[in-house]
Amino acid sequence: MNKQQIEKELSLVPLAVLNGCLVSHGHSTRADKGLAVKAVVDLVAIGTTTIAQVKQHKPAPIANPQPVFGAVASALTALEARVDANLHEQVKQARDAAKSNADQLAVELGSVAARLSGDLDRLKAETKRIAATAGKAAAPDVSGEVAKAVGAAFAKFRKVTPKAQIEEIAASVPATETKQARDIFPVTTYRCGDDLIDFGDLNVEVWNDAAAPAVVDDYVFPPDHLHQTLVALHDENRLPDNIWLAGERGTGKTEFVTQVAARLRRRLVRVNFDEALERADFVGGNTIANGTVIWKGGVITEAIKQQGTIILLDEVGFARAQSIAVLHALTERSPHRALVVSETGERIPVAADVCFFAADNSNGYGDTSGNFAGVREQNSAFIDRFGFTLRFQYLPADDEARLISTRTGLSQQAAEILVGFAKVAREKAAAGLLTQPPSLRQLFAWARAVKRGVPVQPAFTNAVINKFPADCAAELLAVFTATINVATFAAAL
Fold first, then answer.
1. 50 φ, ψ (degrees, to nearest 5)
2. How many helices (H) and strands (E) does the chain have?
3. Phi, psi of 197 (to 5 degrees)
4. In what order do the strands lie in the sheet with 386-392?
5. DSSP state letter for 270
6. How many alpha carbons lie under 13 Å from residue 422 in its C-beta half-sphere?
7. Helix, strand, or coil here: 359?
């Protein structure tokens, strides 16, 4: 249970019972139920007690100090409550801030907490001293000293992370919630040999980021790839495994990442690589503003600052090794991963839960087929920073036909004829008779044209044939003639 759930449960417990729990653990009673609930929530959260144990405590009345010392005791009680409330609020703020600045704030927060603990102990000792001397002499008003000590404890913390900055950071972090995979994804089962694997009860985080891509309802998830991806994205230390996606064009690599991000409501940043892309294009570089040279961050630099962002390095096989060397430090699975700006010396840490996907027509070791001119072999150290490699295949024929029909309005029967053509073309490509087969995008375009009244053969020429060199075009035309009867196709529309 998270703190919000614990607080909701404890709010139903009588104040006297909450005070009984506080007394049993060496704390003073609270006159305000809200403060009592917060104090007990902290005890439950750190494992000192449980909700069930709290409910079993005997009621404890609020202490009624002797009249002579009533004002002092009341002041002390109020101060203690204030210290506890301040501690609770500051710790909450620190947690939020630490999401993007953990390295710096962890040390500071530890120091603050230690000093506050000492202040609270001194406050409680003073309370006992006053109680012990009740009736002997008027007790001194220690409220000023306690308030001064508490203020001093937090002074350095405020300098390190101003409240306004904490609030800004907190506002930028999407509120997450935990759900089960079956509540989010349309399929959560698959077969592995003779075993049926069901990952429907796998807990996943939904980020509710307004910048997340839109859900495409008819997208067909490869369930085994989805299972591995969800496992890779979840890590107790907020350090997900990066994933490499390998496969022919048109096998759904890019859309897979997009729809995972969409269903999990996570921000997606896509960087499309080509031979000309330079480091400055995606990381950043010097520029001139108002006559002054300044460094301006690129798309990846901004993306790594946002907690939970998924960064897709698309067509990364085209990138030059020297251009993406800077990504080594960012993709390292380490709590210290960061971008160091060579121009300024600034260190920009990678926020928690940021995950990298790389999409490539190969598995990072270049093109051995001759089908993808310009695809380069990538540095093995870079590839090794991706914990898993998922190989994408074309959809099963029934699923592919259903998808074409759904997205274009073409009849299921006509879509099956197009898929039959594609199957033969892919087999010829695998045998080396074609440079590459038509992509799924080309099949979509072909189907849309036919649906809107273009005859099947001209639509095929415009959507497929004209995109290939002459030798491939001839082979594809032969496949078309062998697999598609124009009259049968027209009847299927």
1. -125, 165
2. 20, 13
3. -95, 125
4. 268-272, 310-314, 355-360, 242-247, 386-392
5. E
6. 26
7. strand
| Among the listed residues 145, 97, 150, 88, the one whose alpha carbon sits nearest the alpha carbon of residue 119 | 150
**DSSP 3-state assignment of 250?**
coil
Contact assessment for residue 462 and residue 422, using Cβ atoms and an 8 Å cutoff:
no
**Separation of CA 394 from chain center:** 27
Q: What is the pLDDT of residue 146?
A: 59
Per-residue b or e along 142-154, where b marks 16 or more CB atoms closer than 10 Å to that residue's CB: beeebeebbeebe
Tell me the CA distances in angstroms from 165 to 169, 330, 479, one per residue in order. 6, 24, 63
- Burial of 38-50, coded b for 16+ CB within 10 Å and e otherwise, reads bbbbbbbeeeebe
12-30 residue pLDDT tens: 888 889 889 988 888 888 8
DSSP 377: B
Three-class SS state of 178: strand
Measure the CA–CA gap between 311 and 334, rounded to whole angstroms: 17
d(CA 488, CA 493): 9
CA atoms within 13 A on the CB side of 393: 11
Residues of the chain falling short of pLDDT 50: 65-69, 135, 137-139, 364-376
Instruction: Please state, in angstroms and rounded to a whole number, the distance separating the CA atoms of residues 362 and 248.
Output: 8
Q: Identify the DSSP state of 298.
A: -
